[in-house]
Amino acid sequence: MGHCKHRNNSPKQFCQDMAFVSNGKLAGVAARKLEDAESFAQKYDIEKTYQGYQALFDDPDIDIVYIATPHNFHYQNAYDALKAGKSVLCEKPITISSEESQKLSLFAKEQGLFLMEAMWTYFLPAIQQAKKWVKEGQIGKVKHIKADFGYPMPYDSQSRAYNRDLAGGCLLDMGIYPLAIANYFTDEPMTNLHVKSHFAPNGVDNDVIMLADGETRLTLATSFQCKLPNLAYIIGEDGYIVIPDFWRASECSLYKLDDEIDSFSDQRDSIGLNYEANAVGIAIQQQLIEHPLMTHEMSLRLQKQMEQVKSHF
């Protein structure tokens, strides 16, 4: 596996978790500056380093590329990797528009290559356990989904989080997680959407509340202003499920009224990115071009929903 790096934490965490992956290994790392790639490679015991991403894409020993550059570069990086014959695991959001998402999906299919948005949350055992409880009818018909994800990010118009040119803002950066968890537990479109948004001095969104109405009601929020509880509640007619820190969930609990009747903890030693990496390895061995748990259609759906939210800004 090759890897394009950027200054966020996720590449470091991803590389740490590759130690827990049995069907793949880190073969190379690319950065714009060779010395950056070299110091990163030393830390994570990566054999090869490349100056510039194209050199990595052109290496015949690389099967799949993990992309974790700033959001606005995802489309071009993923396109170039696919064009060079590599499968791609691309950090979320996979692109910054539904149009880009559609184009990328189409190109991956034309190339006959695997492409997936790195929605690692969907691959976590606790999230899958929660879904199992829902499927078993443990909470009855799902009526409400409440989820929020926020951390205080000090304002700096040049930082990746707030930089307009890098597609900054809390909706794309963190808000994709509450939307993703809602989509994992309901197939309904977001209807009668209400959005309350707040903006940093440069006009980038730094706090967003989303309410949607339907058979299942959604109450979702994301913020750069403060730490939110970062919980997901899946609430049904007969009970509810609580998932603490749902975006990186390691546990979940099942309630009937006030009583906790079941709970699950995965007791993992990893951060949790290994489940996604392992699943991608299996999918590529099976010669799939998308993963049934995180399809191209789901990526497109999330892009469209974020556009829907932005239209209310």
UniProtKB/TrEMBL annotation:
Keyword Oxidoreductase: yes
One Pfam family here: GFO_IDH_MocA_C3
Residue ranges occupied by any GFO/IDH/MocA-like oxidoreductase domain in the UniProt entry: 127-241
Superkingdom of source: Bacteria
Keywords: Oxidoreductase, Signal
Gfo/Idh/MocA-like oxidoreductase N-terminal domain location: 22-116
Family to which the UniProt record says this protein belongs: Belongs to the Gfo/Idh/MocA family.
Name of the featured protein: Gfo/Idh/MocA family oxidoreductase
Species whose genome carries this gene: Colwellia maritima
